[in-house]
Queue: 4 jobs
Job 1
Amino acid sequence: MACKHVLLIGAGALGSGNAEALARAGVGQISIVDRDYVELSNLNRQLLYSENDAELRMPKAIAAHKRLREINSDVTVHPHVLDATPFELKKLAENIDLIIDATDNFETRLAINDISQMYRIPWIYGACAGSYGISFTFLPGATPCLSCLLDSVPLSGATCDAAGIISPAVQMVVAHQSVEALKLLTGNRSALRSTLLTFDLWRNQHFEMDVTVSKKADCPSCGAHASYPYLSREYQTKTAVLCGRNTVQLRPAKRMERNLDELARHLSALDGNVECNPFLVSFSEKDHRMVFFKDGRVLVHGTSDIAEAKSLYHRLLG
Ligand SMILES: [Zn+2]
């Protein structure tokens, strides 16, 4: 496995567990993509991080890199502090053996699904909510794809749950994802589970569903005339309300590099509190806090209203 390269999308709860399992198993390279930074409220289930990371507001990809290097220095970790947009995913998918989904939203998963089909890279879906979990291993050319399943399988149980996630449910999904990863990376395809797995640890339930019949010949993502609709420009949203966070992410229309020093100077002149690290600038005022990243993104905390987030942003930066 030392020659294998895994692309891990998301470094939250599922991402922490998967990254640690892969690093300890000795996977050669792990590319980690995450758009967020560490906060105290993450620490009950995001096992790679510490209070110090939260204090410093370290981007999760960077904090994960540091921790994984301490765990196994033979593993090469490539941290990416950015949103997993189709544009970024296309670049990141080069020479990747496997993609692991540790995101919290279907927009990104559908983009991962199209990337997987386009480049023929297997991917392992995983999601959690409360005490519930779900996982499936997608193999291009062999299994149905996520787009095929959306119409026939109730996947909506795994939506963002503000009531919170219990850590054992996370660890259970991680166990299922990482064992499938080990099978794939060691060439043991015949050992793969092949079913769609769901469980609820609190209710003592465990189901496995054969979804073979869900594969659609005319699927826009995996059919004979695939058009990969979720990679198109129209599909990419510029704003997103973050899962259970009372936070809106604003993304610039064009990729840009923000000069954080210049921004910090500008914000220091305003009525609010400015804090910086090499990866982001945080600005707090009354009920809101805004966090600006190098890639141009802004997280607006204290609202789930996109219009309000935009107006707060424009009031600061015009
Ligand atoms: Zn399909």
Job 2
Amino acid sequence: MMEYLTLNTGAKVPVLGFGTYLIEPRDTKQAVYEAIKAGYRSIDTSQDYYNEKEVGQGITQAISAGLVKREDLFVTTKVDTDGYKQGKKGIEESLSKLGLDYLDMMILHWPRRDDLGSYQALEEYYHAGKIKAIGLSNFNIAQTKKMIEQTEVKPVVDQIETNLNLQQGKMHDFLLSEGIVHESWSPLAQGAQNLNTNPVLAKIGQKYGKTGVQVLSRFLTQWHVMTIPRSISPEHIKSNFDIFDFQLTADEMTDIRQLDQHRSQGGWPSSMQVDA
Ligand SMILES: NC(=O)c1ccc[n+]([C@@H]2O[C@H](COP(=O)([O-])OP(=O)(O)OC[C@H]3O[C@@H](n4cnc5c(N)ncnc54)[C@H](OP(=O)(O)O)[C@@H]3O)[C@@H](O)[C@H]2O)c1
């Protein structure tokens, strides 16, 4: 059974969703359809992934097949433009490519020169009811504070790199204190770490009949981190979703917290390192 987090708008959001970064446009429609069929209700894309159109097609196919209603989905995309004017144009394009009347959430993909202008565009669509929740991604504590102080609508999430090696404890506590949901990107470190052979995860997994990947996703979701693993494998799509029939003990949560190395998987611009 899916679990939910409550955004500071009062809206409920599934704690586990489906990521679509690096999914080729030709694979995206099917992957999104498979994810919805497997039970995912939250889908994450971006203007920067060049697959919004195909994400929209997967959603349309799932709705047409009677798998889900639009109002039961939580669709997120991200702003890849800079400033107010370009922001508005980009929002219109995202709505059009996704084929949706409204977005459940739209977030600034990363800090740029004119974040206040970009955010103002999001606020305008939020007030018009065309975007139900707005937020941030890759903003550190100082950058997030500035947005809170200088904008009208408080961000609902900050989506930041968060996985076994980079758990973002400081950001987590800061976001919690501000009533902003901590959302993880690359929860599986892009498949780079062999999570299924990590001895701590494997030992815990043995107890519950789960893989290391499932234990890690359970850890993140139980820590109230919104988590959006990506996969094009139907088998992984299903198993990544199968994490709600067990609970980690407080000791197991602590054991996994202790595996934090405060280390990014790397390869990302320094502006995206927010372990502070
Ligand atoms: N805001 C940002 O700046 C930002 C940056 C990066 C990502 N994101 C978001 O976060 C989402 C997730 O991050 P990500 O796409 O970077 O990577 P990820 O979810 O951490 O990892 C995806 C990789 O893990 C593999 N995988 C998935 N399930 C598995 C399983 N059960 N066992 C073994 N391997 C498995 C996938 O391969 P298979 O396809 O073979 O399963 C894929 O290679 C993205 O899709 C995107 O929506 C946001």
Job 3
Amino acid sequence: MTYDFDLFVIGAGSGGVRAARFAAGYGARVAVAESRYLGGTCVNVGCVPKKLLVYGAHFAEDFEQAQGFGWSLGDARFDWPTLIANKNREIARLNGIYRNLLLGSGVTLLEGHARLLDEHRVEFGGQRYSARHILLATGGWPHIPDIPGHEHAIGSNEAFFLEQLPKRVLVVGGGYIAVEFASIFHGLGAETSLLYRRELFLRGFDGAVRTHLRDELSKRGLDLQFNCDIERIDKQADGSLLAILQDGRRLATDCVFYATGRRPMLDNLGLENTGVELDERGFIKVDEQFQTSAPSILAIGDVIGRVQLTPVALAEGMAVARRLFKPEEYRPVDYQSIPTAVFSLPNIGTVGLSEEQAKAAGHQVKVYESRFRPMKLTLTDCQERTLMKLVVDADSDRVLGCHMVGPEAGEIIQGLAVALKAGATKRIFDETIGVHPTAAEEFVTMRAPITP
Ligand SMILES: Cc1cc2nc3c(=O)[nH]c(=O)nc-3n(C[C@H](O)[C@H](O)[C@H](O)COP(=O)(O)OP(=O)(O)OC[C@H]3O[C@@H](n4cnc5c(N)ncnc54)[C@H](O)[C@@H]3O)c2cc1C
């Protein structure tokens, strides 16, 4: 049978674009359908605009600290509409780059919604296209719980386009997106509270990292409220909101921002016309080579709900393109030791196992920790402290995890991820010469374990 395309990709986000470009580069005839925005979540309503807002929020502390270095600044004022307009301009530029990348690699770009008709056919704009393989890379969507008044709340998609910075914000959630947005709103001057229903945010991160960040955020004046949740949101006559908590408290605010998880984007995708199955969490079920229960249909990225990060979607996209069109270069995606950052203020950078995970996996661990006031702050009134931590296997001396809370932690952890991937031991860390004077050199100068 002949097909219109060798590969039809639904979704031009991180994973879809990577798979499409690589497949086309290997000589496949490829189409990509995109219903909203080129570059997907990461470029439009995820990593990129989020990081730009974090940079914006960081200036507040820069201005304050500058005074210790002899600078006197006038009355620094912040204008949210300017930041959002500039951010939008940059995103539009990136959308253009994605378009050129796809077209330049010979991919047929179809802008609009695509829907599966069966396991080899897709409907797009009233047309039907056939393909030998179909790749679902449709990503995810913010989930806002269905409580009374949920229509007054926003998710991350809307937060990037607010017309004004709210004066008061309640951020609900305990994942990295909640923590980052709480830092953004607080840094930009909004009176911000973070509400989370469990005892501490960032489940899965190292315990010392979680408590250290909690303490640092509290020191900055960010109001953290754990073990609580919103029961109802009422709109007031003056347009403000009243959040009624399950414990009966009533919190007045101007914005309720939910970051309580993301669901897979399967809306009107036509899965019912195929044998594609979902897992128990509702994400698309795939095998280790990203094949769904329908042999001609594959899925990658957030829609399979494994590790919802852009570099992981990219790696999965590349693996699919190779598996289908360059099998001799196929390598499975390595989900071990994925480095990651939380761009809270201060940042978290982490790679490998937390102390808790290492112990649960049966390792006898040695833990090294350093807590210090960064040199840059010594001329300022800021009492922020940095945390660095190494989790080491006591038997093999192998470094199992590196964790940091402090300025530029995301930048610093990337290099350490290479060391962990290469299987570095603590001895190798010790024998590595530091870069002086930096904060990062602490990672190679921690001599005595804090555990026996
Ligand atoms: C606020 C926020 C901050 C984040 N920050 C980071 C970060 O700092 N670092 C990091 O690594 N990750 C971050 N992420 C996660 C990252 O954005 C995702 O993991 C990544 O975008 C997933 O890529 P994907 O290709 O699976 O899906 P997406 O990038 O979501 O792309 C899916 C695309 O499919 C399109 N689509 C869906 N259905 C259809 C259809 N039927 N027809 C046509 N097109 C369709 C969508 O419009 C979308 O463009 C963040 C996410 C959010 C929400």
Job 4
Amino acid sequence: MKTNKHRILVLLLVVFITSLTSITFAQPSADKFVVVLDAGHGGKDPGRPTKNGYKEKTIALDIVLKLGKELEKNPDFKVIYTRKTDKFLELYERAAIANKADADLFISIHCNAHHTQAYGT
Ligand SMILES: [Zn+2]
């Protein structure tokens, strides 16, 4: 169940990013479209745990690594990660990484969870 939801989410993200490919056609070939992938939370900050024991930081990192692997197959993209391991970064550090790279797109992955009767995000 987790794997199927995960695959669907990764697929949606890849489709979204792929749809941005048209933007790269307008740029000189020497310029790459810089994408910063930010796995939310990490280290001491687990994010929102689920009742099944999954941690948001782990799911977000897994999605980011898979998405990055797919994007790196396209030579028009330069992929930068805010983290590739389970480490904590302050929000300003994440933004600084994107600004330093002069990123064209910043994607921060989070996974909401709750134990209430509410639905949606
Ligand atoms: Zn989050």
